[in-house]
Amino acid sequence: MRFLGLDLTGVVPDAKTMWAFREELEENHLMARLLARFDECLRGLGVELKSGQIIDASFVTVPKQRNTREENEIIKEGAVPIEWGKNPHKRAQKDIDAHWTKKNNESFYGYKDHVNVDQDTS
Fold this sequence. Notes:
By secondary structure, this protein is of the alpha+beta class. It folds into 2 domains: 1-49, no CATH class; 54-117, no CATH class. The protein is 37% helix and 20% strand. It has helices at 15-27, 31-44, 69-76, 82-86, 88-92; strands at residues 54-61, 99-103, 106-117. The protein has a 3-stranded antiparallel sheet with strand order 1-3-2, with no helix packed on it. The model has no long low-confidence stretch (mean pLDDT 84).
């Protein structure tokens, strides 16, 4: 809807109407020309299309850290709290590279993992 500039209150053709229009384009051998022109417009905007493309982004969660405010401030500065250095077992249990993020009002602690594969990737 955003791509076509439509909103929820706008008049939108139903699926049957769209199907009939598509069939008419096919019968008059216009579909290939229409899609070629559409592709040309997208390329003019710098959009590159690839066939067989899959894009996925997911969260890899890790155990939540129970740090004090002071420890979090030290971590944000790129350092490790001194107390953690005294106890190697405690340091081994801490993940200072993970971050909090929100999606659909749900909080996640961990990492974002992005995968992009297309037909030409071997």
